[in-house]
Amino acid sequence: MTWSEASAGLGALLVAAAGGQARHGWRARRRAEVLLGTGDQVRLWPADRWPAARGSPVLPGWVRRAATAVAAGLGAAAFLGGPGGLLVGGLLAVGLHRWMPRARSPAERRAVLEEERLVRQLPLTAELLAACLASAASPAAAVAAVGASVDAPMGPRLLSTAAELALGSPPEDCWRRLGEEHPPLAPLARCLVRTSLSGAPASAALSGLASGRRAEAVRMAHTRVRRAGVLATAPLGLCFLPAFVLVGVAPVVMGLTSRFSHAM
Questions:
Q1: Ramachandran angles phi, psi of 105, nearest 5°
Q2: Which pLDDT tens digit goes with each residue over 225-236?
Q3: HSE on the CB side for 255, CA within 13 Å?
Q4: Which residue spans traverse the membrane (predicted)?
């Protein structure tokens, strides 16, 4: 195998890895925006960055995944050469195609983003509900006031529940329906159902729910930061370990092999 073939194979591998790193880098930036609270006003795919808005075709996710896996497999086969290289390249292509993350549709990404925003809005919503209910407001009036004061997607959900309460629907059924239709709001719904059935003041329970959710968000943020530190060492290992083997170990092994062959 010539150096040009080896360079071509290595280039194909680097292109495939760069594509995956770009996607992961964009996701990391998006998670950082969500974690720092700066991503509420940023859409998941802005119109000026969506490929269809610029006139370029949008390939399905399975096509991009298959192309990346085939390119990586061909690069590995060209780099190694021979039947062993073909075998390794085929196994690499199959493994990448199987284990690469599946691209989600725009509707699924919007749904995930909406759930994340509901989770972030839950502590503030619980505190506002606690304040309204502590001021002797009715459940319908409290939910309507909070729904009008918070942004989407929480506000429209609360306004819909407030309309059901104003029409005379049982509060327990309204809270249960809210938790079933929107899983991120299930803790809030369970808290309101318990207080409605027991007759206990809901303000204390809602305040405890808000503080507990904020503490959980802080723990999750610390976990993400520690995980990011661990994952940051993976590219360094993938880059420096092969370089160390090629520069430091391979010449020594080749020199020892040549001396042993001359001695024989």
A1: -70, 160
A2: 888 887 777 777
A3: 6
A4: 66-94, 229-254
Please state the length of the chain: 264
Name the token pair of 107: 């509707």
The count of other CB atoms within 10 Å of the CB of residue 72 is: 25
Cα radius of gyration rounded to whole Å, the chain: 28
Under 8 Å between Cβ of 13 and 76:
yes
Q: What tokens were used for 82? A: 């021979």
**Measured between alpha carbons, how far is 154 from 185 in angstroms, rounded to an integer?**
9
DSSP states of 17-72: HHHHHHHHHHHHHHHHHHHHT--TTS-SS-TTTSGGGGT-----HHHHHHHHHHHH
pLDDT digits (tens, 9 = 90+) for 149-167: 999 899 999 999 999 999 9
Q: What is the pTM of this model?
A: 0.57
Angle at 1 between CA 85 and CA 64, to 5 degrees: 50
d(CA 140, CA 29): 40
| Tokens encoding 29 | 């930036």
CB atoms within 10 A of CB 175: 26
